[in-house]
Design brief:
Structural class: mainly alpha
Number of helices: 2
Strand order of the largest sheet: 1-2
Number of strands: 2
Strand content: 5-15%
Distance between the termini: 21 Å
Shape: rod-shaped
Order of helices and strands: HEEH
């Protein structure tokens, strides 16, 4: 079994965990934005938080801003999902290679003992 492949597998696992963490953060942002948009559609007065204060703002301006943010989050989330799939495929391929090497090494060890 190749130690290099095992290290590569560990690196892929680490990268996958990072991607999944970032994906979760963007999913959380997506939910918050969807909730804010839904709430904004049911109210007549709108406020925007700037620093530590809330100021009255145009509902249309806020809708435009939130929709823009949501679009950006959606695109980034889609990219993270694609990266996650790619890493999972790479890991599966590498795991199969490592398993084949392990089986091959085990068989050759058993043949030597006979």
């Amino acid at each position: 079994m190749s130690a290099e492949k095992v290290q590569q597998l560990q690196l892929l696992q680490h990268n996958l965990q990072n991607i999944q963490l970032q994906k979760q953060q963007y999913q959380s942002q997506q939910l918050e934005l969807e909730s804010a948009l839904k709430e904004l559609n049911t109210t007549e007065k709108a406020y925007k938080i700037v620093g530590k204060i809330m100021i009255s703002s145009s509902k249309d301006e806020l809708l435009k801003d939130l929709n823009g943010q949501k679009e950006l989050v959606d695109v980034r989330l889609k990219n993270f999902i694609e990266q996650e799939k790619r890493l999972q495929q790479q890991m599966e391929t590498l795991q199969q290679e490592v398993m084949k090497e392990m089986t091959k090494d085990k068989n050759s060890t058993e043949n030597k003992e006979e």
